[in-house]
Write a structure and sequence with these properties.
Helix content: 25-40%
Shape: elongated
Mean pLDDT: 83
Number of strands: 31
Number of helices: 6
Main location: membrane
Low-confidence stretches: 1-20, 177-190, 552-564, 566-575
GO cellular component, one term: membrane
Structural class: alpha+beta
Radius of gyration: 37 Å
Strand content: 25-35%
Subcellular location: Membrane
Largest sheet: 9 strands, antiparallel
Protein name: Ferric-chelate reductase 1-like
Membrane topology: Multi-pass membrane protein
């Protein structure tokens, strides 16, 4: 029984439950600390934003207009997201009062701390320069209230809890002025990372450390196309090394199976002239969420020749507050890479590399193998290649050019050519049907990222089913309307062949089954040309432009007596049976040569599928 393959994009796009991760502004999970979980530190620069109130004193039920404005000039005089709250100035953990919207198209109310309308956020990620809202003082308010706002300019650049004005109740003295640095409070401390002095090496793979590499056996020290992951046990921790060519990030994940869900993810992401090393977690078929806990130690990185390299140490047994997998258990290893922009990852450039078997990270060193193509999709590609490169072409050639052959031979009461044609076409339909189902089993539904390939595949599947159904209702050979069936059968089959070839060409360039280019494309093209050449030669021969038989004619010798001279004369009469046998032999030779070449192309392509 095939193991249920379940590879998804372990690091497709880093959409997080925060201000930027939700362009719609539904960020209630950030209500308490007002901090986006982007895996980036808040900016320590002075914020280029101001927050003002139209009055500084209030009574119960009073309304105060609060304005958030970008005060810088030029191309950066904007913000994308924000989260505005009113807190008790004496206890900044307590939300006070409620808000009322001025412009619902750019701002919306949130329910924070079980209080309706206690916070305001953005409605989309479009650039904004100013937002106004109205704060309504509650009954029995505290003596003073401070407005706080988190503002996000881009995914990796944001300011947390920018302090706004303090408004006081009538009859209460205002609190003393405060000085802030960088305009952002509650900045989180992080563990600094250092720069690697040299590149990683594959030396010791399988002896002192475990390695997963693509291509197999590559060395990141001298191969800039090498995707490399190594790990080794050091007392109570595991030391990881990760390297690969990428524009934005390289990453790996620990998974209990070959499906996405409850996976422990680690990524090294380029940020201008440095690399951010982060841990993340995937729950279900969703995007990874950056972890706020600091589970990684001894972080180091290097950027060179288009490669991103990073290393870090992680405890084998994580602490209770860290949502990380224990490293003394076996896991499948995923490796992925792709682009990143403003600190946010995009869908990986290639299908992730997945280890062939589970590996216990604390076990003996091992040189691991992996594949970027799931087993189900390998079967899909193999079945479709066999069906539409080999069996269908052989069935077409036999039906077109071998009807006159084997006239005295039958198989189960039917002519040889018909039984061979029907058997090959039945096999084609069965292979197509099985191959058609496999991607849906793997994806769990329709793939939106495969371009035209799945749509054309559906067309091929429909045409493949129509052909035998049409054949079941064909009229008798001597029926007056038999020609209609002949043309429909020929047209549908030809269309199916053409569409299938296009579909196969698109299929070998899909991420989930990416065959080596350009030679795999060339090989597939040669197989198509090979069929066209065989079909052309046989067609020319059938139309009499290549009368091979006349070159092989034998003769029977007769003698006649010529009465006048009483002599014998030898007469040579062509043997028509021998001529027909020569014509048939020629066709058989063409068919045999074609099948040998076709099977050769097919075997190489199947071997390539197995190897990826």
């Amino acid at each position: 029984v095939l193991m249920k393959a379940r590879i998804v994009l372990v690091l497709t796009a880093l959409c997080i439950k925060t201000v930027a991760g939700y362009p719609s502004g539904k960020v209630t999970e950030s209500c308490e600390d007002m901090t986006p979980n982007h895996g980036h530190d808040p900016s320590t620069l002075d914020p280029p934003y101001t927050i003002t109130a139209d009055k500084l004193q209030f009574s119960t039920g009073d309304e105060i207009k609060v304005t958030l404005r970008a005060d810088s000039s030029g191309s950066k005089a904007y913000f994308k997201g924000f989260l505005l709250e009113a807190r008790n100035a004496g206890n900044l953990n307590e939300a006070v009062g409620s808000f009322q919207l001025v412009d619902p198209t750019i701002s919306q109310l949130l329910q924070c701390n079980d209080k309706d309308g206690s916070a305001v956020s953005h409605t989309d990620k479009h650039h904004k320069t100013e937002v106004q809202v109205v704060w309504i003082a509650p009954e029995d308010p505290p003596s003073s209230v401070r407005f706080l706002v988190t503002v996000l300019r881009r995914y990796s650049e944001f300011w947390v809890k920018i302090p706004g004005p303090v408004v006081t109740r009538y009859g209460v003295d205002p609190p003393p002025a405060e000085t802030t640095i960088g305009g952002s409070s509650d900045a989180k401390t992080t563990t600094a990372s250092s720069m690697l002095s040299r590149s990683f090496t594959s030396e010791g793979c399988g002896s002192s450390k475990s390695c997963l590499r693509d291509p197999d056996g590559c060395n990141p020290q001298n191969d800039t196309s090498c995707h490399f992951l190594s790990f080794r046990k050091e007392e109570t921790s595991i030391m990881f090394e990760l390297s690969g060519p990428a524009e934005g990030y390289v990453s790996f994940a620990l998974s209990l199976d070959k499906w996405m869900g409850n996976d422990d993810v680690y990524l090294c992401m380029r940020a201008t002239n440095r690399v951010d090393i982060k841990a993340a977690f995937v729950s279900g078929r969703t995007h990874p969420e950056i972890s706020s806990e600091n589970a990684l130690k001894d972080k180091a990185w290097r950027l060179s020749d288009g490669m991103i390299q990073c290393s870090f140490r992680r405890d084998i047994i994580p602490s209770d507050n860290q949502k990380r997998f224990p490293l003394d258990q076996p896991y499948y290893l995923f490796m992925a890479h792709g682009r990143a922009e403003d600190g946010q990852t995009h869908r990986h450039d290639r299908q992730p590399l997945i280890s062939s078997n589970q590996k216990e990270l604390t076990g003996d060193p091992e040189d691991l193998t992996g594949s970027r193509s799931p087993l189900l999709l390998k079967y899909h590609g193999a079945f479709m290649l066999i069906a539409w490169i080999s069996t269908v072409s052989a069935g077409v050639i036999i039906a077109r050019y071998f009807k006159p052959d084997w006239p005295e031979s039958n198989i189960l009461g039917q002519k040889v050519w018909f039984q061979l044609h029907r058997g090959l076409m039945t096999l084609t339909v069965l292979l197509t049907l099985v191959g058609f189902v496999l991607p849906f089993m793997y994806r769990g539904g329709w793939s939106k990222r495969a371009g035209l390939h799945p749509y054309l595949g559906c067309v091929v599947m429909a045409l493949a089913v129509i052909q035998p159904v049409m054949a079941l209702f064909r009229p008798a050979p001597d029926a007056s309307r038999r020609y209609i069936f002949n043309w429909m059968h020929f047209g549908t089959g030809t269309l199916a062949q053409i569409v299938s070839v296009i579909t196969v060409f698109l299929g070998i360039h899909q991420q989930a089954l990416l065959l080596p280019a350009p030679w795999s494309t060339g090989l597939l093209g040669f197989s198509v040309v090979w069929f066209v050449l065989a079909d052309l030669v046989l067609e020319v021969h059938r139309r009499g432009f290549l009368p091979i038989g006349k070159y092989f004619k034998n003769v029977k010798i007769y003698t006649e007596h010529i009465n006048s001279e009483d002599k014998e004369i030898i007469m040579f009469v062509p043997d028509e049976n021998e001529s027909l046998r020569a014509e048939s032999c020629f066709k058989n030779i063409i068919l045999a040569v074609y099948l040998c070449g076709n099977l050769g192309f097919l075997m190489v392509l199947l071997w390539t599928i197995i190897s990826v």
